[in-house]
Amino acid sequence: MKSFKSIGLSLLALSASAFLAACGSSDSNNLLATPATLTTLTKAQIDATTTASGLIGISGAAKCDVQVVSLYYQTKGALGEKTDASGVMLVPAGTCATTPSALVAYAKGTDVQKPRTLANPQDPETFSLIAMFAAQGFTVVATDYLGFAKSNYPYHPYLHANSEATSVIDSIRAARNSNLANLSGKVMLTGYSQGGHSSAATQAAIEANYASEINVVAGAHLAGPYNLSGSFKLTDAIAGYQFFVPYLVTAYQKVYGDAYTSVGQAFQAPYSGWIENLLPSATLNYTTLVTSGKLPGINGETPNQARDALFQAAYITDVRTNNSNPLYLDAKKNDLLAWTPKAQTLLCGGAGDPTVPPAIHRDVLYAAWTAAGLKNVSKVDVDPLIQATFGVNGAAPGPTDPKFATYYGSYHGTYEPPFCLAAARTLFIAKQ
Predict the structure, then answer these.
(1) Are residues 91 and 145 both part of a single domain?
(2) Residue 110 · residue 9 · CB < 8 Å
(3) 68 in a structural domain
(4) Measured between alpha carbons, how far is 313 from 301 in angstroms, rounded to an integer?
(5) Does any domain span residue 8?
(6) Does pTM top 0.85 for this prediction?
(7) Strand, helix or coil at 183?
């Protein structure tokens, strides 16, 4: 569930009262520093980059210059304590500056690099937002989350719905408080992978508690893990398991204090010696986490082999089979299967996604909505577009072909995001 150049990341009701009441700081000015304009990209510069990368076929030619602004704002931590976060605001400029625009609040995919900020126009994920939304006339705000970039929070509460929603809600407030954009008042929510979980949590929170403050007119949640507890029931590990699952387990231990009684109960040596403070890392990225030996994978381990190297077998078995297991119950607190959206809402994913399988997440959530009779929801499968672009299974004859591994290793983090962002933009254009 990495950013766009990388590999990507239960039917019990979400405890709405506990979840929703914790979200947001206040409607007062929450900026902690004057927003700083980093650069303004011209339409020609944006088109040159999208043309060189091939993205222009999906994004289209830029209609607007884009002002890139860094934000630093007050928000709340996982336990409701006052803290800080940073992010980026992408503002249509030039000939678009006087036209009122909807605000797209975006939540990023899984990040393992603590210093990384989206307030960087050369960041692939940020540039995708520039090309797909800001250059087309939408103002965008995107949070770095707790524990990243300028945030002094001591850890990142990974896939913790409350604090994800709070980070996004307060980024919306920060964008409004900047007074740098000509906003129409309409807000649209989207995010990819972990960000799909975050944006869905944000929509649920706003519609329940902040509808008079924030006018959400559409949500597009992309390849998100909405059924976290259900994913723990799988017998086979997902692609990227060695990154995402330890991240989740150690984060829930920090938030709830009950994911394990001792680190050795859950993790095997040598990983138990450092795993609790490994992610996010101040110096390591996805590749060097593996090449340094901090996480398994250097010898080409399969996801199942990586799981078996990292975790104690008894621990994994109990999580999968015991419905009273504390980690399983923590995951259920962060499932997003019980809310019913009020705004027009889209779920996107690709059927071949090996990291966030739609059958476990998107389709389970969509089935719950249709069973409730909702008419304002839809889902899209971008797998046909991926196969048309990259070939069936990457044009590899079978799983033993190296192209096959490359195809599935790239599916969630590289192939899928642009097509889902395009689906989100189609919805947002209709609702702007």
Answers:
(1) yes
(2) yes
(3) yes
(4) 17
(5) no
(6) yes
(7) strand
